[in-house]
Design brief:
The chain is an alpha/beta fold and 227 residues long. The chain has helices spanning 3-16, 33-43, 61-69, 86-89, 92-102, 158-167, 178-188, 199-211, 216-223, and strands spanning 22-26, 52-56, 79-83, 110-115, 118-124, 128-133, 150-153. It has two domains: 3-155, 3-Layer(aba) Sandwich (Rossmann fold), CATH 3.40.50.300; 168-226, no CATH class. Helix content is 40%, strand content 17%. The two termini are 29 Å apart.
Length: 227
Amino acid sequence: METRELIEEYVDILLNSPDIHSLIIGSPAGLGKTTIVLNKIANMGLVEDRHFVYQTGYITPLKFYEFLSRCRTLELPKLIVLDDIDSIILNKTSLGILKCALTEARGKRIVKYESRSSEEKEFEFNGKIILITNNLSDNKQLAPVLDRGIVYNFEKDLPIFIKYIETHLTEIYPSLNKEEKIEVWERVKRFVGMPNFSFRVLNRAFAFYKNNKKNWYELFVRSLRKL
């Protein structure tokens, strides 16, 4: 299966399995995982703010609690899509809220929020969660929730990763022709296993090639030192 097909299959399994509550997808940035997920659920006829809600970027623990509570107003499958989740997993309170949403106790998943300035709040969470991250391998904080659902770490599947890039080469950096992009890719391919490698890094190599065909490779390699 290609990466798109794998992710789509995992989404199907998540939404159709009563005993699976989460799907965690990890890959380097720029590979289109968010687009694949959102296109898949749209093709399933799910409508935002009716069947699912989407959150990306920074969110405070209280806002995260309130965001999850919105699942009670949704129609099935009551799906929460969390994209770029570093602000959640790096905050102990937010991570605790996430664990509650994914952990059954006596047949229920009770999400709680406690603070010094307000009374304890809680509700029963009965939805599904898709988490999308660019740094799954580095996010040790996620370890306690990895066994609570489906986990697909794209960056650890290098053969599929490489095939995915080669399949989509013609779609990126249109100012170079196919032969030029293949020439660049054949030299850049050896760096795919490096941390944070993505289409964005590949685009940088294409930009160097376009502007300096003589020295593009040296420029590219030097730019990798920050990875």
